Amino acid sequence: MTNGSTAPAVGLLLPRPPRDGETLVVVGGLPGSGKTTVLRRWSSHEGPEVAGLDSEDVAARLRDAGVRVPYRLLRPVVHLAHRWRVLRAVRGPTPVVVLTDPWTSPAWRAVVLRAARAAGRTVRVLLLDVPPEVALEGQSARGRRLSSRAMRRHALRWPALLIAGGEDVRRIDRDDADRLALDDVLAGR
Asked: Domains in the chain, start-ordered, CATH in brackets?
């Protein structure tokens, strides 16, 4: 089926030039480290429109829609829907996209960063560095724990991520996260 257009569909994937002020802010960290808390605090941000993306929002929407299955069974659906939302938001018109993600999957990082570059977005990455024991306490506090296998996988990948760093990557602890304002991140401070 054709739509009468001779423009190739792959043109949608071509990079756009940088768009002034359009930014992707990634708050990375072990599950339970406090990423969602940072996002919630920033949700009242005054300034450009901000899209906050957290997989917990997808899970909550499914629960609100009446889906009543254990999270371990729901998790693949949540992650798929969340990742779809992330890629749509990164390519979309909202000036600031804030993503919370463990950021420990090299393949997912590559996809998100490639999408951000293609969208012409500046990328800022904050790595919320807390010990695994503290992250486990955070998981308990929110009432949902990862399997020990999944947590171990994240924890094993975390040190390499901290070492890799980069010019737009900033390592922070919980005290830093409590003080940091979204405006500071957007200004590169």
From this structure: 22-186 (3.40.50.300)
